[in-house]
What does this fold into?
Amino acid sequence: MEVKEQLRNVTAPADHLIGGRMPAKPLNKAAIVTRLTLYTLAVLTIYAFFSFDYKELDFMDALLGTFANLKTIFLEPHLKHFSFGHALYQVMVTLGLAFLTTLFGAIIAILFGLLAAENLSSKKTSMVIKSLVAFIRAVPTVLWVLIFAVAAGLGSTAAVIGMTFHSIGYLIKAYSESFEEMDRGVIEALQASGANWWQIVFQAVIPSSITYMISWTFLRFEINFAVAVAMGAAAGAGGIGYDMFMASSFYLDMREIGAITYFILAVAIILEIFAAKIKRKLKTA
Amino acid sequence: MQADIFAKKKRNTLAYLCLLGAVTMLAMVITEYNAVKGIASIPKAVQWGMANFYPTAESLEKLPVILEKMQETLLVSIAATTAAAVFALLFAIFGSNTTRINRFFGAVTRGIATVFRNIDVAAWALILLFSFGQSSLTGYFALFFGSFGFLTRAFTETIDEVSGGSVEALKATGAGYFSIIFQSVIPSSIPQIISWILFMIETNIRSATLIGLLTGSGIGFTFNLYYKSLAYDTASLVVIVIIAAILLIEFASNYVRKVIL
It folds into this structure.
């Protein structure tokens, strides 16, 4: 009797399987969240298109106009309001802004990155710094620049300080995460042998994560170049971005925008190729 | 012998530091950056912020208007990101080494993505301003182009990473191109793809502020309006709203990432 009941229990799920099709993939939490995220994004996107402020814009007209403009911009570039040499110098200024902010950001971020890494400092310090970083990163760079501009005046000084702020936030996050990947055993072994905190940091932690740090820092340099262009346009930081803003808003000279865009594009692509080379070199080393 | 190695290491480090110092000096000269003024401006900015940069009761009345603009900016960022993601996925599939149709086509798609990625959103905004004017669409397309370039690179790398072996295995069983893409490549890379999309939305909200400043739309314009008219209390409220929105999105995306990755 008991055996029979058990048998029925065993065969029961099988009946159910024969009746319906077995689901191809069990629906777990991850799958549900994945789907929900995609659906939410899709719904919000559709809603967004209905809610846009079109300002009585004829969409097709504008789109065709843009294509015509893009053709003018990219196929007939010229420089009218300044010379090739001047443009090159302005590119150097923008690169200089990016370099300074990355360097200052990196130096400060190494110190705070060490304090933010849970395995090198206390949990409390790490928490405080990490929430501070989240706050710094949440404010867009341009707002940092404009806020500092009230104290320092619009110009490259405010731009460097404001951009450095955001770089610090970004690099602390990157550095502390690579420090935290460090093997706990190494730190413990060094502690046991009587090494102090600075010795652990300089002999073990930084040497073992230096490749990550270099590639993150260079990535930030690339980002800072783009940001420096934008700050030149939006916050009076100077450099090629300012010329682009003038060409767009004052001279309304599309061909000049084209020429400037080519300059920016060339530098960005050179930086990207350089970054790929560094990455490859670090990987093999 | 050993002393030699250490001496050499020291010399190398010194040389690098000298080079770094020289480049720094050069950069400071050409950008006209004033180090003393820069450092002095930090305490000054803090002092000023404490005195002026906080919302007052008066500015709270403007909160509904600000929230409405914030919502507009959020929607623009999300819509631009998702639309860009669809195109980027297509380009990534054609551009990835494992799933491309042929070498030439792969190189072309990668090249297009490189161009789009390396023209900054601010530059796109200034270009698009000519024909789209001060409408939401200027910001939308600027973000769209920038996100498209970035996401194509991210998705390409994801596909390269996750699907090398499985694509080869499926090819060996005789599966067709489309069944390989839809049954293996996309399902196995979807968690990473969603993670990148969420990251891009966060980035785009920040960029949208900048674009708004340049093109006169969205939350960036609202900030600029109050900032330029010296209404710092209301401007600070705008900043707080932006911070809240970004932290909220970050929190949501961190949750999603934790569950799906």
Remarks:
- Residues 116 and 145 of chain B are 6 Å apart (CA to CA).
